[in-house]
Every structure is written in structure tokens, then in C-alpha cells.
Amino acid sequence: MTASASTLEAPAATQIAADRDCRNFIAGQWVETGRLFENRNPIDNSLVGQVHEAGRAEVDAAVTAARKALRGPWGKLTLDERCALLHKVADEMMRRHADFVAAELADTGMPLAFASNVNVPRGAANFKVFADLFRNVPTEAFAQDVHHGGKAINYSLRSPRGVIAVVCPWNLPLLLMTWKVGPALACGNTVVVKPSEETPSTATLLGEVMRDVGVPEGVYNVVHGFGPDSAGAFLTEHPGVDGITFTGETGTGEAIMRAAAKGVRPVSFELGGKNPGIVFADADLDAAIEGITRSTFQNTGQVCLGTERVYVERPIFDAFVARLKASAEALVMGPPDRTGVTMGPLISQEHRRKVLGYYEKAKAEGATIVTGGGVPAMGDALDEGSWVEPTIWTGLPDSSAMLREEVFGPCCHIAPFDTIDEVIGRSNATAYGLAATVWTQNLSTAHRMGAELEVGICWINSWFLRDLRTAFGGAKQSGIGREGGVHSLEFYTELKNVCIKL
Ligand SMILES: O=C(O)C(=O)/C=C/C=C/O
């Protein structure tokens, strides 16, 4: 984070809860359905606006528009023209930075600095990075000596996969939606986006940007709604969809995979996690405390890459627990426009019930509560919001639900370990395999942890440090495939080999 909330022009909480109705965006047009659901701001549960739920007809219209656009002006653009247009999208997003921040804050209540310095700039960067990358990626060719004499040459060609369904989550709405839309469009595909019902605003606002910069109609479509028996299911089941990319819970991933099986559509998944944070006695303790505090509590613990299991080498365990406790208790909860706020609410009352259910389960299982474990008294209208205390437990066995199930809240369990073999075994003993953060100043320890942890992303002496050229995704039940850099090409293009006998 580069700036505290006080140095940024924050939309006041009342401005955030403006009348912000969200319509579907199909073939370049705003589409109302009259089937409305409420969008509420988790800061104080105030009404942000009404959202028009898309039905089968709207989803079909969106997929049809996306298919038509593939063969229309969009499909006829050169790679350079397409990439130039994506740069214009990114530039227009940054010109409307304040609007995207306000929209993100209205839906999520996240701290202003996090929206302003991370989510919105990354949302724009996701277009530029892939546009620039794909301009310069070679394909392969092989000169062949044919066994019965003569020669041949083989070369490969990439073409867009087609119409991509983008089903995206509510935790980092703009960042995670454009993490998929950026490469999808850079590769020449068209998209139908189904944002989470909790966070419709930024995907809708991006429709204005696409239209204003001249992205042809049907290239970017947005359909609002829920999962089962709603837009999510209608979209992933639609036979006109050529590929599905999804970030969210593993259970939903399984349902989407079942839908994708009909018609054998490929999927790209980033799913759940139960990520370990591992601190060795030789770690830089200040850096480790800062890193684990961020990986546990940033975005109110609602980051798929976040830490929910902390393992600390025994000689420094007590000191580490004391310092992490102090860090958690120093977090400032409040609305985005309040100076110094470092933690917002959970995304919704429903999600808060889930997280508080785990808070109760931890107590029932006999956890020692180091700090937190309940609901903060905000003392004003904020008490209507979805607030929970940052929480640290210890004393539970690895078999406990708290150590196996993803909570997705501002909480972690902390336990001591004695050997590197032990902590590798305990860290890997989970169905998930998304991310890990390891803190050590011993080079061989660092490389061994990187090699032996069963995850897709292993950060050493860092967390959420992102180079968008790298492979990004989860192992085991944390995902299928990798996106990021050239890895996104594998999902967003079809690769063909052409063999010519010379
Ligand atoms: O940083 C990224 O590109 C990304 O995908 C982050 C994912 C976070 C999920 O909660």
C-alpha cells in the first residue's frame, strides 16, 4: 500500500450509497428485465441500488451477440488494432479511477487505499499487460527431415477460442474480472461476464468504458444474477459458450465443471484454499509480522491467496503470537472514507453468518482465543453492517475444521512446529493447494519449501507480490490450469499445427 486513506479523496459514505442501479449490458445496449434484486453496502447495509437479474433469454442474447461479434468488426481487427483498443480501455478506466473506486467501495466497503491503490489500477493493468505480452509471443516451428526422404516444415498458429464465459467472485471484483477479460479479449475472444450478485457495479461500469472507447458491440457483455436457476447456470450451460473461466469456491467449481462437461468445454479455475503461512526462527521477524498480518487480514481476510493457517518455529512462537496479536488489535475498522481505516466489513450478512459460525465452532472445539472471536461494537449505523473482529486462535489439532475448511474471513489459527519435515507435512495435509507464504533467511530452507509445498504459488519473504507474466493458479482442489503471462494463451486460444511437405 502506498498511501493511507487520509491522503486520498474519499467519496463520503453517503455518496457511496448513491442510487446505483445495475443493468445488463448486451450487444452494447443496457437491458432491464424488471426482475430486480437488491445490492446492499456491507458497511451499514444501506441500499446501493437495484440489479436487473438476467434470465435465459438475456443470457442467450448475450452469447448470441458475443458469437456475432467474433465474426464482425472485432474479428477483423489486426492484433495491433485490438491491443491498441485494450490500451484505450485501460486508459479510460484510469481516467475514471474515482468512479471505479466509488463503485467498488459501494459494493464491498473495502478500505479506500486498497481499492484505490490495488484493485482499480490492477483492473486497468490487466488489459495493458496482456495486450503488450501477446503482441510479442512467438509460436513454434520445426524443420523436419522426413524418414523416407525429403523435408517438411511444421508451424503452429493460434486462434481465439471463441465465446468465453467469465464467472467472477465478489472479493476483488474488478481485479479478478479483468484478470480474465484482459487476456480473453487480447487473444481475440469475446466474453459474457457474470459478476457476483454481491458486486455488480464495476463490471457494469466497465460496460460504459467499453462502449465509450469504441469496443464493438457484443465483445463485452454483462449478465447479472445468481448461480443455480439463474444467470450463472444459464451461462455455463449455454451450448454457445466455448470455454468457462471461474474464480471462487471449490464446490461451485465442481458444479460449473459438470455444466462444462456437456459439449466438452474447457475450464480454467482458481478455487478455494487453506493457505499456510510458515515462519522459521531465522526469519526477519518485523517483515514476517507485517507479511502475515497482511496475508491474514487484508481485505478482511477475503483473499483466496490469504493465510488461514500459521505455523511458527517453536523458539519464536510465543514472541510471534504476541506480536501478531498486537498487529490484529491495531487494525482500524471503519468505512472507507474514515482516515486511517485498515479493515472493512465482510461482503454480506450471509457471509458474516458463515464466518461467525466458524468463530463459534472454534470455541466449541476448545480453541484458545488469542484475540477477537466476535462482532465489534461499532456504536452507530455501522452496527447494521457485516463487521467481525480480526481473530487469532491457537491450541486446535490439525484435524479440526478450522484447520481444514476455508473460512474466508479475518482469522487464522497459529501453531508451533519443530522441524522443516514436520511443517512441510502439516502444510501439505489438505485437499487444497493454492498458495503459501514462507519467511526464512536460510537459502536452502527457502528453496526446499518452494520445491516441496504442494501449491500453485509459493511466496518467500513476501505475499501477494505479483508479476503478471508468471503462472498463476492452484494445485489439487484449488484449481485447474494456470493463467498469467503466456500461460493464459493455453486457455484463451486454440493452438493448431500446420505441416507442409517441401
Ligand atoms: O493477483 C491476481 O492476479 C489474482 O488473480 C489475485 C487473486 C486473488 C484472489 O482472491
TrEMBL record:
<dbReference type="InterPro" id="IPR017628">
    <property type="entry name" value="OHmuconic_semiald_DH"/>
</dbReference>
<dbReference type="InterPro" id="IPR016161">
    <property type="entry name" value="Ald_DH/histidinol_DH"/>
</dbReference>
<keyword id="KW-0520">NAD</keyword>
<comment type="similarity">
    <text>Belongs to the aldehyde dehydrogenase family.</text>
</comment>
<dbReference type="InterPro" id="IPR029510">
    <property type="entry name" value="Ald_DH_CS_GLU"/>
</dbReference>
<dbReference type="InterPro" id="IPR016160">
    <property type="entry name" value="Ald_DH_CS_CYS"/>
</dbReference>
<dbReference type="InterPro" id="IPR016163">
    <property type="entry name" value="Ald_DH_C"/>
</dbReference>
<keyword id="KW-0560">Oxidoreductase</keyword>
<feature type="domain" description="Aldehyde dehydrogenase">
    <location>
        <begin position="30"/>
        <end position="498"/>
    </location>
</feature>
<dbReference type="InterPro" id="IPR016162">
    <property type="entry name" value="Ald_DH_N"/>
</dbReference>
<protein>
    <submittedName>
        <fullName>2-hydroxymuconic semialdehyde dehydrogenase</fullName>
        <ecNumber>1.2.1.85</ecNumber>
    </submittedName>
</protein>
<dbReference type="InterPro" id="IPR015590">
    <property type="entry name" value="Aldehyde_DH_dom"/>
</dbReference>
<feature type="active site">
    <location>
        <position position="270"/>
    </location>
</feature>
<dbReference type="Pfam" id="PF00171">
    <property type="entry name" value="Aldedh"/>
</dbReference>
<dbReference type="GO" id="GO:0016491">
    <property type="term" value="F:oxidoreductase activity"/>
</dbReference>
